[in-house]
Amino acid sequence: MMGRYAFSIVVGVVVTLSLLFIMQLLIATGKQALSKPRERAQLEFVRVKRNENLQTDDFTPDKPPPPPEIPPEVPPQEMDSVDPNAPTINVAAPTVSPDGNIGGPGAMNIAEGDYLPIVRVAPVYPARALQRGLEGYVDLVFTVTTAGTVRDPVVEFSTSSLFDRAAIRAVLKFKYKPRVVDGQPVDVPNVKTRIRFQLEE
What are the angstrom distances between the C-alpha of 133 and each of 69, 117, 192? Predict the structure, then answer.
């Protein structure tokens, strides 16, 4: 038991002396750090002489190029133009009696008759064909319906494919007096027509 106390006292004395030595060392080195002069950085300023002689040149912008010439206006291509010389037939609606007999020799039915063109719309000249100066025609085959309209137009022959679409659009706007058989309108298939495209001189 006494050995433990003696050992503890020896260790305490050693630790105390060590701490005192370290504190003395810190105090000595701290005094040197405070007494040592600090190095100060020096900044050097260089004054540059300002050049007061400025060269000023008169800047005149270049004249803008002249605007391009405005091309001549092309007539609108989507609008339908009706040819005043195209044949136009105004046919009144026929009067049909219940018995269909007008009397007289032959007793012919007044309601019967073949189809007749009433309205023919001139085609719109295609812009690409107009620019190239192309002329030609398109042969079409279609069906005249019981209402007098055109159905299923098909190009049978064309001098240039540039005309096909314009010709079909024009034919679809044709109006006919339908064919009447036994007092009833009927479809007329395989009706042929030719649409011409000619430039005015």
Answer: 22, 30, 26
Task: Report the distance separating Cα 201 and Cα 197, nearest Å.
Answer: 13
Residue 141 structure tokens: 């085959």
Cα 180 to Cα 192: distance, rounded to the nearest angstrom: 19
Beta pairing partners, 176: 117
CB 158 within 8 A of CB 176: no
pLDDT in tens, 78-124: 444 444 454 443 333 333 334 443 333 333 333 467 888 898 888 99
Lowest-confidence region among 13-17, 47-51, 111-115, 160-164 = 47-51
pLDDT of the residue at 88: 41
**Residue 180 and residue 112 in contact, taking contact as beta carbons nearer than 8 Å:** yes
**pTM for the model:** 0.44
Domain ranges for the chain, please list them.
116-197
Sheet holding 150-158, edge to edge: 150-158, 136-144, 188-197
CA–CA separation, 56 vs 184, rounded Å? 95
Name the least confident of 40-44, 90-94, 191-195. Answer: 90-94
Alpha carbon 45 to chain centroid, angstroms: 64
CATH of 116-197, one of 3.40.50.720, 1.20.200.10, 3.60.10.10, 3.30.2420.10: 3.30.2420.10
Euclidean distance between CA atoms 90 and 93, whole angstroms = 10
State the greatest distance between any 2 C-alpha atoms of the chain, in Å, as a whole number.
167
